[in-house]
Amino acid sequence: MAANKTPGAGNERPPPRCITPNIQPPNRAGAMLASSPASATPPFPEPPPPPGTGAQRRGEPAMPLEDGEVARWRGRHARGATGLGGTRGEPHEDGTAPSGSGMEVTAEEPQLGPALGDGDAAAGRGEDARGGLQPAGKELEQFGVLGGEESLMAELSERVQKVVKSSSWWERHGVDASILACSLLALPAGFLCLRSARAVPFLAGILTLGVVHHTLAVKGSHLASHNALTESKSWGKVWAVFFIELCSAFTAEQATYNHVKLHHGYTNVIGLGDSSTWKLPFLNRYIYMFVAPLAVPIITPLVALGLLRNVGLKVAVRTVCCMSLGFYCHYWLLLHASGFQSPWSALLCMLLTRSLLAHPYIHVNIFQHIGLPMFAADRKPKRIHLMSQGVLNLPRNALLDWAFGHSLISCHVEHHLFPGLSDNMCLKIKPVVSRYLREKQLPYNEDTYGARLRLFLRQYEELMVHAPPITELVGIQ
């Protein structure tokens, strides 16, 4: 579909009608969506090397910054250290990635950035990582206000800032920390329930350990990758290693690089953050959707080991030690605390508990991005349009909200706009964000779990096998 723009001085052009494929609510983003086959996409820039692979040489192609990743306010430049492994998704303006990660980037035209309360964003702008509460005079720097207070992102950031500043430490960090602490405290009860020869206590133990594992491995790892668990960058690194490597059996640097740098920095951009890593086109729809998730506990550490070649020796040794310690502690407790007599029965129980919520984990990751507009790297829209078009919220669900967190379920749009906020804060700002996007006639995508599941089963080949169509927002690029 094509749209022509007719230049004319002094004449305001009314916003054309917008058509969004595979999105339930109508799209009124003030622009027109045009789709074309992915094969027609012009070449996009190569992503930066993962952490520890060495710096790009001056003059080589480098990855452009995401809109708003350079903090400039009233002519000042702010630089500073970053969070975990220098892969916090907020590259510096001078083109060098932080914390010695060896990545070099170049900046696009500066625009407003979102990173409210994100420790990496705050640190990347020379500020303290304090979850959105900065000293007086620095609030607008944290939001990366570059285009003036009239811009959409600046106005939304100011509204969200008011909510964050009025929130206590308990709301910003305490609620989610308590959920993680309760999960750790429930571990002894889960292992002891497995000692019972009766079915009900035994199944209760399986359920307890399964939910606890996914709470620590998914919710804890996700918050740690965004440094949203604490206001201290040092403790943020400790929690990242604990949750990502010990509990999730993955490498912290690579998890942060892939999730924060690529997925958040280039959401729904073809070849970078388009969620294509979740696609296995050689599997049919029923195997992928209902059988393959059971292999997630086995595939995850194998992928992590394969990625260790991209990190330094010290990081690789630490990752292997943490992963091994996590597996061994789980295995040892099943043998000695739960009373399993056979090593194979203990290993089977490990697989069962670690894959208990693997199905919704896979489903959620594909439901909230795939099937929504995808963009070429050289024609991607500005951040607020990118996130409102390419992200979808699911309804609240008590089990998934506890185990995965609000930012991965019912507040995914809010999370992509303000990635440094904790799950509880994403839930708190949800009315503000949804109201604002609807006021400005921007998409606010929502759909049910069942509807997305039916859509993916019905259009599996189109969504998960073939290359997605390229969408262009005519009039706002």
Description:
With 477 residues, the chain is mainly α. The chain is built from 18 helices and 8 strands. It has helices at residues 119-124, 139-142, 152-165, 169-193, 199-225, 233-247, 252-264, 285-291, 296-307, 313-336, 343-354, 358-367, 383-390, 398-403, 412-417, 423-439, 449-458, 460-465, and strands spanning 32-36, 63-64, 72-73, 76-77, 105-106, 392-393, 445-446, 470-474. A two-stranded antiparallel sheet has the order 1-8. The protein has a two-stranded parallel ribbon with strand order 2-5. The chain has a two-stranded antiparallel ribbon with strand order 3-4. Strand 3 and strand 4 form a beta hairpin. Helix 3 packs antiparallel against helix 16, helix 5 (199-225) packs across helix 11 (343-354) and helix 6 (233-247) crosses helix 10. The relative contact order is 0.16. Residues 1-32, 36-46 and 53-150 have low confidence and may be disordered.
